[in-house]
Amino acid sequence: MTIRNARHPFYDFCDQALADIRRQGRYRTFTPLARQAARYPVYEEELNAVPDGREVVVWSSNDYLGMGVEPEVCEAAISAIREHGAGAGGTRNIAGTGPWHKALEAELASLHGKEAGLLFVSGYVSNQASLQTILTSMPGWICFSDRQNHASMIAGIKGARGSQTVIYEHNDLADLEAKLAAAPADAPKLIAFESVYSMDGDISDIAGTCALARKYGAMTYIDEVHAVGLYGEEGGGVTQRDGVADQVDIIEGTLAKGFGVHGGYITASAQIVDYLRSSASGFIFTTSLPPSVVAAALASVKLVRSQNWRREKIFERVNTFRAKMRAAGVPFTMTPSHIVPVPVGDAERCKTISRRLLNDYGLYATPINYPTVARGTERLRLTPGPFHTDEMMDRMVEALGVLLAEVPVPSSGQTPVDKAA
Ligand SMILES: Cc1ncc(COP(=O)(O)O)c(C=O)c1O
């Protein structure tokens, strides 16, 4: 047990900051749920730490296609562990590169039609390390960053000392163009944006953004984390679906969502990948992904590329769910993606509805509150997947209908103290 050093002010700072976070209804509580691989999206809630708890149907997983429970993917991980052991044993430079790392990088490069690929230990790290390294490489970089870019992109952009950041309004190409036009013509420029924005479920205009990049001599960097596996004829993301992958300089993705495993990556030209491989601290100085993870991810990417039925199935399920919600008069935000946000509008109400979904109905949907989304736009974010049955959907629609009517919006406009904390 750590002995408290009462003299150091950081302890008091933590107490104060946590009290503030609780008062604002932002205190984070985790819900431990054990995924049942053979029955996904069924999980078990381990009540009072007793195994074999209650069954819960999860509606918030980012394993969108269920690839993390696909037997071929799991078998690839198990046999890699048997053959090569549990961990990678080193960084990529220090005995941590196996043939499977290179095979997966080649597979990802081919998926996105790029010359080369580079693996990172997570999607977060791929964004943070790549953006920071690029934007500190030459003097004078200006990064044009969409206002709603993910925290990992912001971390990389903010960490690039010496570069300038210009934030443009979300998906607003007129604003982007005005800001590009106002920048010095000879400055090296990078436009950083996403394809599918995961909280609102909207999709950017990639062709339009690339046209502006060409007009103003900017490079483009896109995060396809919520799109890979799901969009495009082989799951190459929205860039593949829209036929614009060749117009984007750097495509970043994750192996942890549509591919259901773990890890992040970028794909780009051979020299950009080679430069990042040789310069990005977040790539060089960390133990590489273990063989089991890489083998599973490789199996998953290959399956997802070749099996279009998985993409057809998820969109059929999403459309069926929306039709059921509509028929029952349960409000949701219509999006052009697979994401179904249910607006709730208040942090405490959002947590209460989420808690009651779990306690009363055995359904789990994560409450999405500030700072992940702006105050007043709190929501439940539902991700129907290929294995959500009609019966599961009927239950969720019924439960939401009851709870949205029963749980009132607090009238004070002030977020009450988090009673669950
Ligand atoms: C847009 C976006 N980019 C990157 C990441 C990080 O990916 P990973 O979970 O693989 O670290 C996330 C994670 O949720 C994300 O939403």
TrEMBL record:
Aminotransferase class I/classII large domain location: 55-400
Cofactors, names only: pyridoxal 5'-phosphate
Xref: PROSITE patterns: AA_TRANSFER_CLASS_2 (PS00599)
Acyltransferase in keyword set: yes
Keywords: Acyltransferase, Heme biosynthesis, Pyridoxal phosphate, Transferase
Pathway stated in the Swiss-Prot or TrEMBL entry: Porphyrin-containing compound metabolism; protoporphyrin-IX biosynthesis; 5-aminolevulinate from glycine: step 1/1
Catalyzed reactions: succinyl-CoA + glycine + H(+) = 5-aminolevulinate + CO2 + CoA
UniProt keyword annotation of Transferase present: yes
SUPFAM superfamilies per the UniProt record, alphabetical: PLP-dependent transferases
InterPro entries xref list: 4pyrrol_synth_NH2levulA_synth (IPR010961), Aminotrans_II_pyridoxalP_BS (IPR001917), Aminotransferase_I/II_large (IPR004839), AON_synthase_class-II (IPR050087), PyrdxlP-dep_Trfase (IPR015424), PyrdxlP-dep_Trfase_major (IPR015421), PyrdxlP-dep_Trfase_small (IPR015422)
GO MF entries: 5-aminolevulinate synthase activity
Assembly information from the UniProt record: Homodimer.
Designated name of the protein: 5-aminolevulinate synthase
Organism: Acetobacter musti
Gene assigned in the entry: hemA
